[in-house]
Amino acid sequence: MADTPLFDPTAFRLAPEEAALADRVREFGATVIAPRAARWDREASFPTENYRDMHEAGLLGLCIPREEGGRGAGYRAYCLAAAELGRFCGATALTWNMHVCSTLWSGALTDDLEMDAALRAEHRRRRRIHYDRILRDGAIYAQPFSEGGAAAAGGVAFGTTARSVPGGFLVSGRKIFASLAGHADFYGVLCTETREDGERLSRRNTLYLAIPRDAPGVVVEGEWDPLGMRGTVSRNLLFRDVFVPEDAALMPPGLYFQAATRWPHMFLTLSPTYVGLAQAAYDFTIAYLRGEWPGMPPVKRRMYPTKQIAVAEMRVMLEQTKALWFQAITEAGPDPSKAQMLRAWAAQHTVMENAAAIAAKAVRTCGGQAMLKALPLERIFRDARCGSLMLPWTAELCIDRIGREALYEAGETDE
After folding, report:
1. Assuming Cys at both sites, which of 22, 114, 143, 172 could form a disulfide with 98, CB separation 3.0 to 4.6 Å?
2. Same-domain check for residues 47 and 175
3. Which pLDDT score, from 0 to 100, does residue 152 have?
4. What is the pTM of this model?
5. Which residues of the chain are under the pLDDT cut of 50?
6. Is the domain of 381 the same as that of 277?
7. Phi/psi at 207 (nearest 5 deg)?
8. Which domain holds residue 105?
9. What is the per-residue pLDDT for 308?
10. How far is CA 85 from CA 80, 96, 174, 235, 374, in A?
């Protein structure tokens, strides 16, 4: 599994630095991450040891700009690396996404947005505070998003609020399915700034604030015992008048709304993990049917026509998924066209649905032993089933948006 790139550098015309990064992450995943993956899944425990090793390997600062001490990886380079990591531990790759996006959103993505010179200078001063914590101390940033309503899907303002007070903000609210809860050093919380005039909460007033895990008023509650992605430890977070200083801002006021509107591929970064899981399910099936899986008797099962047909169907689905997804991440950038947005939603839907379908077919094709926890396929199968549920672009929301946007131009109605 560690020998073959998920995306061949020549076939997909990768830049040399992209290919080198993918190779490095693939080797790291195979040697460091894979041997521990069953433990995090079995215990539903957070992969703390993985993050210590990722810090030492420079992966926590992957998307921090070079001029600020990081590796300066761009959007596509990060997605390719995350897909490689997803082949070895879905929970680690998914939580790594939430950490890296704290730097990607505040770094390269924000640099594409409109700000006056003074605001940009202040933003860069503030983000260096966060970047220094990551690079120097190995600080882990989370990205709690969901609240149980329509806010995470972009339908309404976030119910978690921030009230301006001298020197900073008081944050109150609740986030559910908050990955890294109790384990991240800082929670990058999306919340709505309240107005003194009683104005209704507005998505335009969204703030993105880094709240320390040990700040007074931060509470982690609930159990975490899910079907899959067990190592994400996505418990609930409560914020009870939590004070954070103004320098906690990961984006200036109003920039998140601009980013969500003008740089919507920012919400596609959950998908690399599931591209990796789809590849992992296929890789396992090939090795198993060839009698080459480590620790298993060298019994070949490849000669049966039913197995061959199933593998062919898996390969077709995998190639379709990877090709569409690669095109979508290649097009990512500010102000995408309508066609590019339709393709992004189609890619998200295809990845999440096909990862689960490929994993299910792998279990059926490999047979009864594939259900044993001594082998990774049953974990891959359970992890892969979680992708279609993930906000802000669930499989259902992608279909809804594709259908609507394909049939209507901006401003059109049937009235």
Report:
1. 143
2. no
3. 87
4. 0.96
5. none
6. yes
7. -110, 155
8. 16-138
9. 98
10. 9, 9, 30, 23, 20
